[in-house]
Amino acid sequence: MSREISIQIASAGEAALVGQIAPQLRWMLAATAAQRQPQAIASEIGDALAYAVDPQTSRLDPSLGWSLAPDQEFKPSYRELFGMYLRDLDAPNPAVDWVPATSQERRTYSDNTLEFADRQLERKRNPDLELFGIESLPGVAGQLRPERFLTPYRLIRTQADVQLQQELWADSRTTYRGRPVDRVIAVHPRMLAHLANLQGLRRAAPGRLWLTIPDFRVHVRHHRGHTVAHWAHRIGRALSADGELGLLGCGFELMTLLGRHSAALSFGPHIADSRAMKTRGGPTPPFGYVPRVHDWVAFDKAHDVVAHLSTGRDVRRVYCPDPVCISQFEAVGPARFADAMFGMARRGRVWFPSVPARRAQREHALRARLRELALLELSPRDLIRTIENDAAASPFSVAALRLAGWVMILRADEHLAA
Ligand SMILES: [Zn+2]
User: Does the pLDDT of residue 377 top 50, yes or no?
Assistant: First the structure.
């Protein structure tokens, strides 16, 4: 199956890096980024780059904690975004989970998000273009239009949310200015086992349906993670049976579980921040991505291991199979390579990646993410064997154990599915 692969863009900085390293990829542009930095992002969009905008409407629900500042007001960028989404509707009240009440309200709300996705980059760019007298260049405006749209979605945590989401789908257009409007379903991991009537859900969302499961990785790695994975697999299979399934915000676990059922997939570049995990007490080291275990490892541990490797082959086996990393290692030697990748500076009680290490990590993590896509080409059996070998060969014992645990879940799930 040929798949549409998009990379999620959450800032102009990410856009620039992705444009440099993976210019061939589609973008799934975060609405917050389009809202905050329209000009910078518009200028990163090259010729005919295909993109869509993730409307991020689930963040309208303040109880999810994404959109509120410490003073319990909406953060300014969200306030402006929601202001555009809720034009001609009630203004959002930070204390309340806003829900459109009538069919007319749902249509207005949906149309506002479509309008935002369609025009946000262009709207802010036009004055620049006019300044240089090039606003009339043929095709310029067209290049800044998304190729498709995503409907507003809320995070499904109760049966009532399922009902609300279906009503929103029903009152949203299926095409907008000649381009498809895809449906999105965002399911909380704990709700996966309770989604009833998947066929009905699929019928209510014709065309491409994007599935997103926030914090899937965290939940499958807790006890009873196998049940979460099992239900996700059932849902993915059911939703992909009668139409295209897209995976929105797809991490390594969801990709290895459901990737082969998907027609489209969007994934984060791993470059937003290397401080992926927080530990309690004591200085927190930054974490870097170790592609061999598909996981994050603390800088100090990674430095210890990598500084003691001797050949490029060791780097491939233990740390990263990317030729760029291997040739850098061979060029500068183990100690300098480890310093460049995992150098740290301390401010107060907090350790930060050094400036060169931050840059090196961002590029390495993005390349690693792209290489992981090759796993989608493997059969389920080869995929499991490959990951199993990666786990067995790794000196990063905690991450390797976690990966081995995930392999066991995949294997059990494969049995159940067969
Ligand atoms: Zn690498």
Answer: yes
Considering the entire predicted model, what is its pTM?
0.91
CA angle 69, 270, 331 (to 5 degrees): 135
User: Higher confidence at residue 285 or residue 330?
Assistant: 330
Residue pair 264/208 in contact (Cβ under 8 Å)? The answer is yes
CATH among 2.60.40, 3.20.20, 2.30.29, 3.30.160 for 4-267: 3.20.20
| CA–centroid distance for 50 within its chain | 17
Residue 364 alpha carbon to ligand 1 centre in Å = 4
- Tell me how long the chain is: 418
Residue 142, classed as helix, strand or coil, is: helix
Give the distance (Å) from ligand 1 centre to CA of residue 342: 12
CA-nearest of 175, 17, 173, 159 to 110 is 173
Cα separation, 93 vs 260, in Å, equals 41
Is residue 171 within 8 A of residue 106, CB to CB? The reply is yes
What pLDDT score does 138 carry? Answer: 42
Question: 407 C-alpha to center of ligand 1: Å?
Answer: 23
Please give the DSSP secondary-structure letter assigned to residue 318. I
Give the C-alpha separation, 51 to 45, whole Å. 9
The amino acid that residue 139 corresponds to is G
Give CATH 3.20.20 domain extents, the chain: 4-267
Cα 345 to averaged position of ligand 1 atoms, centre (Å): 21
**166 CA → ligand 1 middle, Å:** 43
Using only C-alpha atoms, what is the Rg of the chain? 22
- Ion ligand 1: residues, CB < 5 A: 320, 322, 325, 364
Cα 50 to middle of ligand 1, angstroms: 27
**Pair of tokens at residue 323:** 């030729």
